[in-house]
């Protein structure tokens, strides 16, 4: 069977299906679909604190051993920190980790540090935070942006506001994003909906503003607080789906990558089902096949868009628990011409695209093998209804050789 055709995609029953899905999520040889892989630029934006290089310090003597404290500047916070209890320092330390938006992997080695090092890290962080706060006092606060989003700005003025907001969402600590909060998110989504509903056929400035809002959402979702708020919003996912517009390739790239990241999240509500439902509803409104925009995106001469479309396709298929679901999605895509498109796409030299194609091929092959095993079981059951699985192995081998 052709591993890329929908009818060939399959699973050898519930047990193997479950195993293959677990391996896929655990990354046993298939570490392609992780949130970090999908949006690495955001997730790598925050790095662990680094000590200053000794050679940058005046008066440094080569070979001289220094305590950890010598690697930090002396400041009032450092002196005060040594007067506080360990419990208070640990409390501030945890707040520091949250505010820096470090993931669990980067938090663990920091938590393992000695309490004295933690004191020094907290004091340095407080010193840096105060300097940053003084610098930000002359810049806009989250409340100012909220007021501006309520001001019915248009065209150039609106675009300037959104560009500035995106920079602030990207560079400020989590506490700043929390002040922007659900109210700011609701204003962004409301503005995006209004721009999408405008009657003009993609006025250039309106499209630029839509794209900038999506970039703001991308920055806003780069932490647990923002991601949680976005998932709790009823409009968030449908509006991102509406931005899957091949007529605006650069905006579509960001939209499909965000939806890919959302779809693979481990969440009790099965977020991929919400994404697929939104895709289906939007297609019904447009009176088109639901995956037609993704297929159209694959035809555009934009490698990033081709890769983004494949990411979303893989995300939707990979999260399906049932073999029949995965077969159905893959078959639907093949009927729209995906198989022929992939023949051309495979000739493109691009690492990100190659990774997505490998994921697609491996999953299709696994499902093909599983479907064949399932059909063999049905065939055996039909020819040996009384014995079923207890029929002689030699006879089973004979059946397989006849196929």
TrEMBL record:
Keyword Coiled coil (UniProt): yes
Region annotation Disordered: where it falls in the sequence: 1-68
Any GO BP annotation: actin filament polymerization
InterPro entries found in the cross-reference section: ARM-like (IPR011989), ARM-type_fold (IPR016024), DIA_GBD_sf (IPR044933), FH3_dom (IPR010472), Formin_Homology_Diaphanous_sf (IPR051412), GBD/FH3_dom (IPR014768), GTPase-bd (IPR010473)
Pfam families listed in its UniProt record: Drf_FH3 (PF06367), Drf_GBD (PF06371)
Keyword flag Coiled coil: yes
Protein name, per record: GBD/FH3 domain-containing protein
Organism of derivation: Pleuronectes platessa
């Amino acid at each position: 069977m052709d591993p890329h055709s929908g009818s060939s995609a399959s699973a050898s029953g519930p047990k193997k299906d479950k195993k293959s899905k677990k391996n896929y999520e655990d990354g046993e040889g298939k570490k392609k679909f992780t949130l970090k892989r999908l949006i690495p630029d955001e997730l790598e934006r925050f790095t662990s604190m680094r000590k200053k290089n000794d050679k940058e310090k005046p008066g440094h003597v080569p070979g001289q051993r220094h305590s950890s404290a010598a690697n930090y500047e002396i400041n009032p916070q450092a002196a005060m920190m040594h007067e506080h209890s360990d419990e208070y320092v640990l409390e501030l330390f945890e707040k520091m980790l949250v505010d820096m938006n470090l993931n669990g992997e980067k938090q663990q080695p920091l938590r393992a540090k000695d309490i004295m090092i933690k004191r020094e890290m907290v004091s340095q962080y407080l010193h840096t935070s105060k300097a940053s706060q003084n610098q930000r006092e002359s810049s806009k606060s989250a409340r100012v942006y909220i007021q501006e989003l309520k001001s019915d700005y248009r065209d150039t003025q609106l675009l300037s506001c959104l560009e500035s907001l995106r920079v602030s969402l990207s560079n400020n600590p989590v506490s700043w994003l929390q002040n922007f909060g659900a109210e700011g998110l609701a204003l962004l989504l409301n503005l995006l909906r209004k721009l999408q509903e405008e009657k003009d056929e993609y006025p250039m400035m309106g499209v630029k503003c839509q794209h900038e809002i999506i970039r703001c959402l991308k920055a806003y979702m780069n932490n647990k607080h923002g991601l949680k708020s976005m998932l709790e919003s009823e409009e968030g996912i449908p509006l991102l789906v509406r931005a899957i517009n091949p007529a605006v390739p650069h905006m579509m790239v960001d939209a499909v990558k965000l939806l890919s990241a959302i779809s693979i999240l481990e969440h009790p509500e099965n977020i991929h089902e919400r994404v697929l439902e939104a895709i289906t509803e939007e297609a019904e409104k447009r009176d088109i096949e639901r995956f037609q925009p993704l297929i159209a995106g694959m035809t555009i001469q934009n490698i990033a868009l081709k890769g983004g479309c494949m990411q979303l396709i893989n995300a939707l298929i990979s999260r399906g628990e049932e073999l029949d679901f995965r077969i159905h999605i893959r078959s639907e895509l093949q009927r729209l011409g995906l198989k022929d498109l992939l023949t051309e796409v495979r000739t493109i030299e691009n690492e990100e695209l190659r990774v997505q194609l490998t994921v697609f091929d491996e999953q299709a092959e696994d499902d093909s093998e599983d479907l064949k095993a399932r059909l063999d079981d049905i065939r055996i059951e039909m020819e040996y209804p009384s014995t079923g699985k207890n029929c002689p192995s030699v006879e089973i081998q004979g059946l397989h050789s006849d196929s």
